[in-house]
Amino acid sequence: MKKLLLLIAVVACLSGFRAPNGNIISKGDYVDKLIANLGEPHARIHLGTFRYPGNIYVIREAWTYRIGQYNQRFIVENSRIVADDWSRF
Predict the structure, then answer these.
(1) For residues 83 and 74, is the Cβ–Cβ distance under 8 A?
(2) Residue span of the signal peptide, if any (predicted)?
């Protein structure tokens, strides 16, 4: 039982990206939290604009930051973070 609780605590602590200043940025947060903690992205890639029934438009972008030796990439839809990924190269 203790191992299960420890595992749940570790997963809860690691569920999200920790900015260099210590703030946790996770999926569902608004883009202004990214800009406030990391500044403007190094690259902004437009992934397309999609239209859903009812005239709902979704704008997708990939924002890339260089943090130390890592590249952190966020997928943004209508100013909300929907996914994040990192790589070393």
Answers:
(1) yes
(2) 1-19
Under 8 Å between Cβ of 73 and 63: yes
Please state, in angstroms and rounded to a whole number, the distance separating the CA atoms of residues 84 and 77.
12
Report the sign of the C-alpha dihedral through residues 82, 41, 43, 79, in that order. Answer: positive
Pick the CATH number of 2-87 from 3.30.1450, 2.30.30, 2.40.50, 3.30.950: 3.30.1450
Token pair belonging to 27:
């999926």
Dist CA 75 CA 10 (whole Å):
25
pLDDT per residue as tens digits for the range 24-66: 778 888 898 888 888 899 999 999 998 888 888 999 999 999 9
Structure token pair of residue 8? 């749940």
As given in the structure block, the two tokens for residue 73 are 């990439």
